[in-house]
């Protein structure tokens, strides 16, 4: 896998991001709400097309019209958009086939993966009847079915129970050790802190920190990633806001 | 996964798709999934009426095709009553185009303008041309079914009446006219998407739908006027602007093939086949841009904050009795205003309702002049603008965010009657009253101030009709049912409510014919009928 480079500017959401990513890394991509995390991922997947600068994935410019690079990418979006009238079997084989797998392979793989996640009993029920965690598992399966080299996971752990979280974290480090790249964004700081090889903090469309956790710790003199996050995004009035929030609905009684 | 017969038919054309750079297996897969989903109804969150699980997959659109079959049977007349094919078949294709296009614009605009697919499918190695064509074919398949139901009877009769050649020509032209309609509609949407942006685009799309329905209605009038009846003989003189009226192309094809090869019709016949083909090429060329521009529809702009003291909310204070009702009135107003899919489905019918009374007025003009018409009681045709009411009342139970309906159950409310009446009042104030105001002003200009009491009666009648339709047809709470791609066609219910409209119109007419002050009596009766019906909502 070649290096990934992207660089865009001009767009309001992203003000010039330069980034190079190598294989075998788990990259924690963090930032406050609305910082431009999802936009970055959508740009790389070709969902949004107006950008300036250039992006290369697997050594090829993604704007060159060849979409075959998407075969090697897996994606879990932040908001679970899913055809929930379908059963897991129907949905997953459909997605598998879009990635170029044949039906049988996709079905066998998906079923085995569902079994590991403990959702094989509902494999033939409609997704609409699933709980949030079960839907998330389907999304995770759909993103890895075709054995991608690059994974974009946007809040992959949302809705999962503690045991499943451990399984997914283990899956990520296994894949990274095989040389796959995982681009991971989350708001849960201690998870990011523990599993990421490299942490990129983005704020207002710009990268404001980039490095391993210990590097960040070193340059910011703060204990946890949460504190570093607060410090770098210039946020320290959480107590005041909480006070104000509570008094907003309690002043009625006064 | 279930395989659909129609896809096996499509397989025969796979060589063709390959030539256009379409990834056929992928497109087929997308279509298969789409068709499968159409055959399933998403479960409603609350008010689960049908407790037993609907395991059998059945497509509601196909189930509702019989109404087209019935209309199609009436259409046989056009085929059998003579051999002036130019006139008969132009008219036939005019009606067909009207039906199909209305269905595309009101039922399937949501498919063509879908933005969710993008995130789910284009993140996979699928090119946007394949996805775009899959959407167009998805719609075409339904139009194909509709056309079969509509034209089936006529096709069979034509085989016996006019022979095999006619039959074959009929089939070919039906296929081309279908392609033309879907592609034309898609191209028109492309055009709109290209030139407008953001919030404005969302409004323009809806106005565009109204204009499209108006255009079709007016086009149909023009079509009939092309032919002049001189002593029961149909006279037709070709002039340049006839090339602009699409159904004539198709009529001319039959005239050309069946009644001798007149050079005059050759050009028109070629149009009927060449234009759809050219349109497809153009469409395929523009598809990637179209998919790209669709993104504009999902972009969210922060709207300017407007003062809430609008005429609408002041009206709400006046017509809503309880606090809860007023809350839901405002809520429903905002839901209807902001929901794109709701507007996509409602606006075409709105346009039709506004124009129908005038179309009927125009057809009167053929037999008598304007001063004669405006002197009598023909203003009663204003009732036909009530055709929008059943659609509005049916649509209001749907929402693309239907899952949000849990809030009704969680909120501390005794019963949900305020939700229902508040929503219905919002429907009236949002759509029915403005339409009546518009029509009323025009009709008052035409007929004079004497009809003003009648107009108030019509408004009360519409209010009554709204509640009646709601009680008869709407089993679910407002905004609590999913917005299915393929809705059960509302044909049957619209037909039933047409009967109700005609009944009300009849009573009104009788009242003003029998007594001098009949309209006031009618007003009083309606007033009490309204009071009774609105109270019955629970």
TrEMBL record, chain B:
The chain crosses the membrane at residues 61-81, 93-115, 136-160, 166-192, 204-227, 239-258, 265-284, 346-365, 377-396, 428-448, 455-474, 494-512, 519-537. The keyword Transmembrane applies. Keywords: Membrane, Transmembrane, Transmembrane helix. This is Membrane protein. It comes from Peribacillus loiseleuriae.
